[in-house]
Predict the structure.
Amino acid sequence: MKVGFIGLGIMGRPMALNILKGGFELTVWARRAESMAPLLEAGAKGAASAAEVAAGCDVVFSMVADAADVEQVALGAGGVAEGARAGLIYVDMSTIAPAAAESISARLKDKGVTMLDAPVSGGEVGAINGGLTIMVGGDADAFAKVEPLFARMGKAATLIGGPGAGQVAKACNQILTGVGVLAVAEAFNFARKSGVDAGKVREALLGGFAYSRILENHGQRMLDRNFKPGFKAWMHQKDMNIVMQEAHRLGLMLPSSAATAQLFNAMVGSGMGEEDSVAALKLLESLSGE
Ligand code: NAP
């Protein structure tokens, strides 16, 4: 099976490397030469456009940023649809709105391309160690064909439902992780302002009902003041915006998500968009005094 990968940033680069390490023939394309370089050094073939990747592959993955980027990669000039050979399966693993995924999938279908939406959870660490959780929407036969490739990138790939269903699961994931980051940041700020060591609080709580991977991993990074991305605050803002737009469309009350969306808006507005979302702690501290 010939495989293509488009979008080689924090997540895409290690995911593509894991496919290559699995012995698959891999062709890659990224906008910037420096994004492509590590894959070419590792033995992947380089292409000049997304269309060229699609022309030579049976399955093409993308891991870009937002819906407009997926639309451009899939359907724009020099995009996947332009070069696609018959029977191509296109798997977008970026986090975008469910409605956008559904619409791109329908337009690709008209051009003979089967699309799966397959966003992930697990962050940069999961991408590096092949431990991602993959949530998939789309055709069951296409899912079965792509499963061996999902197995290179993740420990679990679940077919949730039809087109867009993977993105619905990912939006649920972002509610939990976004609210979780805000909760840990609030707890640590509370401890700090009370004159108590937040590290000791974390240590104690990890043994109780409040245990979570967010408290463990993101909490440690907050204590280390390690705000290097990871998962950029502007990306989490994008994801909470997806959640809030769906809430509006569906007439849903999501009060915790709304507060979390405001937090990420304020981080981006304060110039913290390129920092990791755990830098939320800094913002809360700056609004709470010494
Ligand atoms: P990133 O480091 O900014 O990488 C995104 C890559 O996409 C960049 O390398 C960029 O290419 C490429 N790109 C963006 N728009 C493009 C376009 N229109 N055409 C071609 N290439 C384009 O971001 P990331 O952290 O890897 O995140 C990627 C996706 O995964 C996002 O949807 C994010 O929400 C999701 N995600 C991220 C994490 C995480 O922890 N980071 C976890 C789960 C899901 P160039 O390098 O050529 O500019």
Observations:
- The chain has a mean pLDDT of 97.
